[in-house]
């Protein structure tokens, strides 16, 4: 009986391993890909993205200023009533 259970468990384990094709996992985004995607976002979406990121508040403010200078969209207008996540240290 015990041998039969071991055979069944070994077979199930073998099928699980064969069924999992770890080689087909998609490649993650490169840093350049991520920067390009953020750059192609609408200014409002960029502001919301940076606001929700864990970067320090001083860096967020710098990004907000850059976006405002380029587009005229103000972070204060976009973020009315939205809390900022605490900055990481």
Outline the secondary-structure elements.
Blueprint: H1 2-19, H2 31-39, H3 43-52, H4 57-71, H5 75-78
Helix pairs in contact: 3-4
Describe the structure.
By secondary structure, the chain is an all-alpha fold. Helix content is 63%, strand content 0%. Helix 3 (43-52) packs antiparallel against helix 4 (57-71).
Features:
89 residues, mainly alpha
Helix content: 55-70%
Strands, count: 0
Task: Give the low-pLDDT segments.
Answer: none
Radius of gyration using CA atoms only = 24 Å
Indicate the overall shape. elongated
On the 0 to 100 scale, the average pLDDT is 82
From the N-terminal CA to the C-terminal CA, the straight-line distance is 58 Å
Order of H and E elements: HHHHH
Q: Give the structural class.
A: mainly alpha
β-strand amount: under 5%
Major sheet, described briefly? none
Count, helices: 5
């Amino acid at each position: 009986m015990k041998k039969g259970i071991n055979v069944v468990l070994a077979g199930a384990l073998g099928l699980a391993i064969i069924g999992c094709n770890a080689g087909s996992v998609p490649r993650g985004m490169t840093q350049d890909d991520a920067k390009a995607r953020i750059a192609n976002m609408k200014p409002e979406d960029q502001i919301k993205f940076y606001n929700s990121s864990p970067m320090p508040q001083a860096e967020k403010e710098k990004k907000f200023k850059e976006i405002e200078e380029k587009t005229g969209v103000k972070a204060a207008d976009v973020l009315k009533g939205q809390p900022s996540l605490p900055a990481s240290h």
